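Human: I'm a chemist; would you kindly supply sequence and structure tokens for a protein?

Assistant:
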Amino acid sequence: MDMMEKTLAKNQNIYSGMAEPIASRLIHVRKESIKESLGKFPNLAHRLEEVATIRGIQFINDSKATNVNATWYALESMHRPVIWIAGGQDNGNDYSILASLARKKVKALVCLGANNSNLLNGFRKHVASIYTVSNINEAVNIAYFAGTPGDVVLLSPACASFDLFKDYVDRGNRFKKAVYEL
């Protein structure tokens, strides 16, 4: 993850923690102290979490992105070619807000889920390479082999996880396990 991506990934977590600095200012804590503590704020698990870099390909776990808006944020945060792993329990998602980002940033889409028809229909005009898989190990392997050094493999499903996983935590943990097994 380059410096810009790290900063943007941290922003997602910083937004979640803005109540602390506001409260701190109300009790007159120095701005420099607040800024320093926010700079040390760790990324949360399953939220733009850097997993590993293998053969120059970075793997990011954003399993918590269970809706289109969260995935929009993740894709917007990427500044290198993306191999995007998406899919899951789709409840009629409108993927149109992701189309322009996919066209600009997504090199390949790996559709992971029991029914990928909405993803396939939503992105076949915007992404050159699309793969359909039925398990996370296959998704990680295809993404790895589709990637080249400098690419990012981003698990940001835009869907609920209940078709193949217990929840987003289970999905994210299995993703990380599959990456570590490469």
Q: What stands out?
A: The chain has a mean pLDDT of 85. The chain is about 45% helix and 20% strand. Helices lie at 3-16, 19-26, 31-39, 68-77, 99-105, 117-123, 136-146, 168-180. The chain has two domains: 1-43, 44-180.
